[in-house]
Design a protein that fits this description.
2 copies of one chain form a homodimer. Chain A is mostly helical. Chain A has 2 domains: about 80 residues, Orthogonal Bundle (Multidrug-efflux Transporter Regulator, Chain: A, Domain 2), CATH 1.10.1660.10; about 50 residues. Chain A contains 6 helices and 3 strands; from the N terminus they run βααββαααα. Chain B binds a DNA duplex (30 and 30 nucleotides) through helix 2.
Chain lengths: ~130, ~130
DNA sequence: CTTGCATCTGTAGTCGCTACAGATGGTAGG
DNA sequence: CCTACCATCTGTAGCGACTACAGATGCAAG
């Protein structure tokens, strides 16, 4: 009998919004620890829920899994970890800003192309011609 | 003897800024046609250069390779293709705008986190705490 | 003759999942 | 008691778009 203070993987999935397959994947690659089992079934306690929530939040900010690993260690370790955490966040922020700039450029060009195409002249598609140069 | 009007893959790579391995990859998956060979060596003519340039430009706008395939067909076909091309560009634009919004949100949160961390209080890292919730 | 260069083929790795196939066990309904 | 369904299990393969080898080949220059 599993203690009522632990939950099966399906409920962890519901609580965190994280796909079951993804949870098992995280376990496989060592992002989540191998959980206690009752029979064949994984059971998670509140620490497990907290850990996966942490991972999800970090992933939503775009941190790669390797960085998430480090962030988890820092969060556990406490103490001197603030500097390192800030560095990772800054680098991630720079990354995000760079990607946004890329998307800005794409959006501008795509907008122009769509417009050019809309103002269609006889000869051919301005959009396709622009891609053909 | 290869005619001087054709170029080897290395020069195609230099001309288009596309990695040699990527060119061969495009050939393998049918984005680029199997080129003429002199001996073992691929040779490309100006049509080949134009085609790969088209692909690169489309990729820079974020079009997935499957869409690029279609765009290539449309560009070849000419004629009635403008509508379809515009639809693809519009859908790609919507995609880019959605992704940009995601990045905006991430940047905002990351910025806050970095700042919170900078204003470091004694107890612990505000950044890591925010991730831990 | 050796060194270096460009090219070749084929395969496997990257990242972060996602999607199966096929097994297992428990509960609920007929 | 049998069947159906449900959640879970393991293991493997696929996605997209490359990238990175390893190991072979052939040619030209020093």
């Amino acid at each position: 009998m599993a203690p009522s203070s632990t939950i099966p993987i399906g409920e962890l999935s519901r609580l965190t919004g994280c796909n079951i397959e993804t949870i098992r994947y995280y376990e496989r690659i060592g992002i989540l620890p191998v959980p206690v089992r009752y029979g064949r079934f994984r059971r998670y306690d509140s620490a497990g829920v907290r850990r996966l929530s942490f991972v999800r939040r970090a992933r939503e900010l775009g941190f790669p899994l390797d960085t998430v690993r480090t962030l988890l260690l820092l969060a556990e370790g406490g103490g001197q970890s603030c500097d390192q955490a800030r560095q990772m966040a800054e680098s991630q922020l720079a990354d995000v800003i760079a990607k946004r700039a890329d998307l800005d450029r794409m959006a501008a060009v795509l907008g122009d192309l769509v417009e050019a195409c809309g103002a269609g002249d006889a000869g051919g598609c301005a959009l396709l011609e622009a891609l053909s140069d």
